[in-house]
Amino acid sequence: MWWIGLLSLVALSECLVTIPLTKIESTRESLREKDLLRDNHQQHPYSHAYKFLSKKGITKEPMRNYLNLYYVGTISIGTPPQEFRVVFDTGSADLWVPSIYCSSRACGTHRTFDPQASSTFQNTTQPFDLLYGSGRVIGVLGYDDVRVGDLVCKSQAFGLSETESGLSLEFMVSDGILGLAYPDIALRNTTPVFDSMWNQSLISENLFAFYLSSNEKNGSVVMFGGVDPSYYRGELQWVPVSKQSYWQVTVDSISMDGKVVACPRGCQAIMDTGTSLVTGPTKATRNILRSMNALTTSTGKYVISCEAIPSLPDIVFTINGVAYPVPASAYTMREQKGICYPNLNSSKRIKHWVLGDVFLRLYFTVYDRGNNRIGLAPARA
Hints:
The chain contains seven helices and 29 strands. It is mainly β. The chain folds into two domains: 7-227, Cathepsin D, subunit A, domain 1 (Beta Barrel); 230-378, Acid Proteases (Cathepsin D, subunit A, domain 1), CATH 2.40.70.10.
């Protein structure tokens, strides 16, 4: 999977901000997929015909699904624009890309930003340090114009990496990350990209939305300033944000076959487009794994009988009184040699659930900053 463990973001000489889960693919998967990822990396993921779309004031930026590990879109920074692939991540709040001053191997496999080539770049001396579960990014903040689709945020704060350590950073397809969480978890005295869109009157509604497709090439979009109902079925069900830092909500319970298997008295969950799996506290996750008769291998990994998958029950997350089932076809994956694994991950270091792409591929999600709520509806296939 692509983001495991707690992510801590430290601005040197500033306060410590702790961010849950994830933005780096594990070393095991990084190595397993490295040849394919390197091949894909050599070509731009979009054709000239596959550019942003605009409908009724909604800006849509297409994203490409890479192996169900992460969704990558394009932005540009500077004048003239320098283009980068980024993960649009609701689990963090800052933007960073590699810089030409980075000598790490990871920077050598990605596009790098050249401040000297941009007439609108403004430098600072404020350093930052991003520590991931399986990688680390160190650099300095700068300001420049950032374009997302047809929206241009003027003098946007972003990080320029100078050191990137870890195999996961080296082999990941995206160049950087664009965070879409609340400004409370952003670097001090900086404004996140989405807040800049709203503050600079670039969008008509203070919200954005995600449609994550299972198609590995196209179909996935992040949209800013409005909602296109053609991407979902039925009506949006609104859930209040329980804490304005991550996109955090209260889960009533988690059940299988009508029996509560986790979260019996309610719990908290984070909607995180930067996390590939569903992750929960260790005890609760193991209880679910036992309910599906998962077995432990000698390496500590859980496996499931591939033949049993059609008969496994849904995992049902009940949120604000509404049931959101996740079928076995979504919470399991088949790898080489016919081995099947659960798309569930546990962590002793978290107390909240993280509903990543396994959940979000099933449900179109609207992140409404104007009303501090999340809207969910079944995504169209």
